[in-house]
Amino acid sequence: MSLYVGLQKRAAEGRPLRVGLIGAGKFGAMYLAQVPKTPGVHLTAIADLSPANAIANLQRVGWAPERFGAASLDDALGHGTTHVGDDWQALLHHPAIDVVVECTGNPIAAVEHCLEAFRLRKNVVNVTVEADAFCGPLLARKAAEAGVVYSLAFGDQPALICDLVDWARAAGFGVVAAGRGHKWLPHFSQSTPETVWGHYGLTPEQALTGGLNPKMFNSFLDGSKPSIESTAVCNATGLAAPPDGLTYPPASIDDIPSICRPRAEGGVLHQKGQVEVVSSLRRDGSPIGYDIRFGVFVVFEGDTEYIRNCFKEYMVRTDSSGRYACLYKRWHLIGLEVGISVASVGLRGEATGAATCFKADVVATAKRDLAPGELLDGEGGYTVWGKLLPASTSLALGGLPLGLAHNVKVVRAVRQGEALVWNDVAIDANLPAYRTRRELEALFAPQAARQSASRRVDPMRGDKLPAEGVSGR
């Protein structure tokens, strides 16, 4: 049954999926714009730190006032309307809620929301991929133990990449590479909220007029968000992370099969079955035509002469050898597509991407020299950016996850470009997110060591192969 048919059936039966949204900012507002046009879904409640801002966004996307005037959750259920408040606990504890959409963008808060949802046996669509990047494998495990579904959010690039990887593998292809596009030059990793608009081609005044958040936009520009999203993809699909971070090769869409192939064959990949992010700028800063900046891709292999002939017969664009081909989506629609995850989780009990292993991590890396006493300001800020590394490398370093590099004090000097480690900072050990991360390390580090000593998983197909060791610092 298609998702749309399933939603229509739920609407006809008077049994809509009852959804609770935590966080109604930009991403959440995009989802809200689609809810009134989606059958079989009742957005029962919204919890936001600022209910007034949530209401403003509801009005902005076209909701009539009578749709969100419910005085309580029970009132919303009785009248088919939406309750707006600031109590996320009340939202989670209400027995009628089927699916929770975590959309705060705050990784520390998101972990707490997810854990409480699992305790209450609620399905979760986690838009806050920053939380998934530093403890997604454990969140997925805890959801499974509770008998509920934990899912990445369709519309965001990680879930779309997972979908392409799943398509390729289910069709019998080996996945050579998968990833997303980005506007990237090497010096962007030092960008701050003060420099971001110049790199984007906007003036600060234009950004202010548009209500754009410089720290959020800078988290994309400085490489933090691409690393976060690539980590989520690695941990959901088993694809490998590059040994020393993303390399951002410049390429047009037509050139992706030639670029995202192994180095021995003229490409940039350290190995087959790897994530990578492709830049829309040449190293001299000039733009590339027909770029993948806002899109996602998968490179797959025609491993027999027959398949390569099929590529040729149907005019599939490949590399010069005819062996590697690419399927892509040039755009992603962000929050406008989250309903796909809500429907998949609520109707089929299937995630649109979720961690299955601990293959990759995002480590906080100094943007400049840091002195004891300074306060880290997290992704997109002035102090750190996030670097994608294999999980084994991060664990060997004792790397500080970027998701926990928010409002923590530096206690030792760290030079620009160095990875921060746990001992470099003073962190509140009582934070649920900190305890969850440490629990993840305790659970998955020994498992990774045992697996690396006996066997490893071929990231192209998932087959077991002899071990080749674990990469270190």
Description:
The structure is a single chain. By secondary structure, this protein is an alpha/beta fold. The chain folds into three domains: 167 residues, NAD(P)-binding Rossmann-like Domain (Rossmann fold), CATH 3.40.50; 137 residues, no CATH class; 69 residues, Alpha-Beta Complex (Type Iii Antifreeze Protein Isoform Hplc 12), CATH 3.90.1210.10. Helices cover 37% and strands 17% of the residues. It has 17 helices and 17 strands. The protein has a six-stranded parallel sheet with strand order 3-2-1-4-5-6, sandwiched between helices. A four-stranded mixed sheet has the order 8-7-9-10. It is globular. The protein starts with a helix and ends in an 8-residue tail after the last strand.
Question: What's this, in brief?
Answer:
The protein is of the alpha/beta class and 473 residues long. It folds into 3 domains: 3-155 and 335-348, Rossmann fold, CATH 3.40.50.720; 158-184 and 223-332, no CATH class; 360-428, Antifreeze-like/N-acetylneuraminic acid synthase C-terminal domain (Type Iii Antifreeze Protein Isoform Hplc 12, Alpha-Beta Complex), CATH 3.90.1210.10. Helices cover 37% and strands 17% of the residues.
